[in-house]
Amino acid sequence: MATAAPSAARVQRRLEPKLWITLREGISARQLAHDALAGVIVGIVALPLAIAFGIASGVKPEQGLYTAIVGGFIISAFGGSRVQIGGPTGAFVVIVSQIVAKYGYDGLAVATLMAGVLLVAMGFARLGAAIKFVPYPVTIGFTTGIALIIARTQLRDFAGASASAAWSPWALALGVFTVVLLVLWPRVNSRIPGPLVAIVACTLAASLFHLPVETIGDRFGAVPTHLPRLSVPDVDLARLRELVSPAIAIALLAAIESLLSAMVADGMIGTRHRSDMELVAQGLANLASPLFGGIPVTGAIARTATNVKNGGRTPVAGMLHAATLLAIVLAFGHLAEHIPICALAGILLVVAYNMSEWRMFVRLFRSPRSDVLVLLVTFSLTVFVDLTMALQAGVVLASFLFMARVANLSQAGFITHMLREGEDPADPGAIARRHVPDGVEVFEVYGSFFFGAASKFRDAIREIERKPRVLVVRLREVLAIDATGLRALEDLFDKTNRDGTALVLSGIHAQPLQVLERSGLLERIGLANVFVDVDAALARASELLRGE
Fold it and tell me: 318 to each of 19, 56, 267, 297, 483, how far by Cα in Å?
């Protein structure tokens, strides 16, 4: 029986932002107060992170802030999660810096716009659930690789290295102080964000004692106290072709990171996000961010968790997080130029450590060898080649290995000969319990009849020593069949026709039956030769032997 297609109303519900749902349900004054507090706290937490991620990505610090303000607001306003917080993240640092180094910011802006279009298309194509199936070794491999690269690139700033000196004791001291403070601060006060405390403390120390350390102002000049004007980058066909691969990498990374963050949030608050709507919101955010000088944006797991822990339960908290950042930029943006670069490097080192998942990386070595191979390939390509290739190669390799596993689980052969001994004697459907007339062969396929198993099917068919008068193909264990499996059955039907052998099918399920019917093979075989159980199929075989 065919499965009904999703109704238009159901699809529309999938693409309805959580903000609209919460507004329709109503938000109590108490919850609104919690959301406001959470939004302010997350905005404060996001301030140093947005600046740090902007600098580490090879752009100006304010561009990280613009990303969190514009992209963060859109993700909360149109997203499929109640508590998702969007902004620049550590996962994007490596790929963004590579694109900026090769194509400049204009190239990054175009790639981000292209990624935004891809994400919106993925959402409307209802691919949200498919993104969740990216293998875990791939995710851990590139996450750990990204963390290692972030840590490696921050060491020079952490130590205060410059053109005139290999390192600066003052910069190193402030960097170490930042790391120690970030590690110990949660034990002192879990409400006040550690990164903010570290930034304020290091900035005050550098300013009051006139420490010879490089600041944001020294490297980038004054930080603007306003949002930039809307600006559309120049787009030409040649540039679009060059940026297809980076755009795909940005889109995939944004989708994986945001949906992973939404899943973590679901576990924390006991709700369920709408993955397709979340992809659409991510796409809209990445379409808007570069128009205001921003960089790629996605869901941020740590900031989302901070939002939840501080009482945020509706998208209002995420929108207020963006508003808080905007207010800070407008009122105090000029003070950001005094922040020491080494302190930001210290923050990023801690971020890299937290995102490295090194314990899980080590634990995965106890997994099957195929998973270890995927992990190491993804990690190595991330570290030594580039993230784009790592993502693509990791997913493709994992897919091939998965298909190989499925093929290994599939089996095909003649029960009347090679598989009969392996039958379960307690199985009421066992052929050993039945009389198979002379001239009849019973052939069974176990597992999904995909292209991996089709070769086994063909090999087993070739092993028949003499042509039977009737061939019963038992499909009771085949729940799904693809085009290659269908082709194998068509080849078998053609062969039996040439050999003068009658073909009978037994135990066919709904999906294979639909495939055979749509292809026309069911009509060629004949409904009179297709049965639900093997007893009826054997009875039909006896009739065919008698010429009935």
Answer: 10, 24, 18, 14, 46
Does the pLDDT value for residue 413 go beyond 70? no
More reliable by pLDDT, 408 or 275: 275
Gap between the Cα atoms of 294 and 92, Å rounded: 13
The count of other CB atoms within 10 Å of the CB of residue 504 is 28
How much is the pLDDT for 55? 95
Spatial separation of the C-alpha atoms in residues 323 and 194, rounded to whole Å: 21
The CA distances from residue 457 to 275, 317, 451, 478, 492, in Å, are: 38, 57, 10, 12, 10
Exposure string of 390-413, with b = 16+ CB inside 10 Å and e = fewer, is: bbbbbbebbeebeeeeebeebbbb
Vertex 200 angle, CA 198 and 202, to 5°: 65
> What is the Cα–Cα distance from 141 to 98, expressed in whole angstroms?
19
Taking the CA atoms of residue 386, residue 389, residue 391 and residue 397 in that order, the dihedral angle to the nearest 10 degrees is -140
What is the structure's pLDDT at 2?
Answer: 37
Cα separation, 55 vs 59, whole angstroms: 5
Q: Tokens 């055979």: give the residue.
A: 516
Its pTM surpasses 0.90? no
Read off the pLDDT of residues 334-388 as tens digits, 9 standing for 90 and up: 899 999 999 999 999 999 999 888 999 999 999 888 889 999 999 999 999 877 7
The SS3 of residue 505 is strand
Q: Which residue has the higher pLDDT, 451 or 86?
A: 86
Q: What are phi and psi of 50, to 5 degrees?
A: -65, -40
* Residue in this structure with the two tokens 């990690």, named with its chain if needed: 379
**Taking a C-beta distance cutoff of 8 angstroms, is the pair 258, 71 a contact?**
no
Structure tokens at 438: 């002379």
In the prediction, which pLDDT does 476 show? 86
Distances (CA, A) of 19 to 30, 316, 510: 17, 8, 40
Q: What is the pLDDT of residue 479?
A: 83
Average pLDDT over every residue of 167-195: 92
List beta partners, residue 502. 470
Cβ neighbours around 441 below 10 Å, total: 21
User: Distances in Å between the alpha carbon of 496 and those of 275, 429, 492, 506, 525?
Assistant: 48, 25, 6, 16, 11
Q: What is the DSSP letter of 2?
A: P
d(CA 57, CA 224): 19
* pLDDT tops 70 at residue 419: no
Closest CA to 83 of 305, 326, 260: 305
Residue 132 is given by DSSP the state T
* Residue 20 CB contacts under 8 Å (≥ 6 apart), including other chains: none
- Distances, alpha carbon 23 to alpha carbons 163, 309, 312, 314, 458, in Å: 55, 22, 15, 9, 59
What are phi and psi for residue 445, nearest 5 degrees? -115, 130
Neighbours of 507 (CB within 10 A): 22
pLDDT of amino acid 451: 54
